[in-house]
Design a protein that fits this description.
This protein is mainly alpha-helical. The chain contains 5 helices and 2 strands. Helix 1 packs antiparallel against helix 2.
């Protein structure tokens, strides 16, 4: 029993010593909790999952727009944005509900086919 107490006290000392090197008191407290769970909890825990869920719960306390996306979710969100974006290559101006082409963009598709802007008299 005494041996277990010494081990526990040594672990708590190590946790405290490690946590003093990192940020604010709140951040140290969070780091100490994670360290204690990972090293002292009776069963094996998935640290990555535990941290991910903690981040989600913390952000949920802020507002409905603050959310956390893991690496897989970010990859899925970015997939539609990857690739080539193309257009006709013109500068335009909107006048009320009418789009007027001001000029073709240099070396753009519209210039290559000799697209000319509309001349307004």
């Amino acid at each position: 029993m005494m041996k277990k107490l010494y081990i526990l006290l040594a672990c708590l000392w190590a946790i405290t010593a490690q946590a003093q090197n990192f940020g604010t008191p709140a951040m140290r407290k969070l780091q100490m909790a994670e360290f204690a769970i990972a090293n002292l909890y009776v069963d094996k825990v998935d640290e990555d999952k535990l941290v991910e869920e903690a981040i989600v719960k913390m952000l949920a306390q802020l507002d409905p727009h603050s959310t956390y996306s893991d690496a897989e979710e970010v990859k899925k969100m970015n997939e539609p944005l990857q690739g080539n974006f193309e257009g006709i290559g013109v500068q335009f101006q909107m006048i009320e509900d009418t789009l007027l082409v001001v000029q073709p963009v240099s070396n753009g598709p519209s210039e290559k086919v000799a697209f000319l802007p509309v001349t307004v008299l």
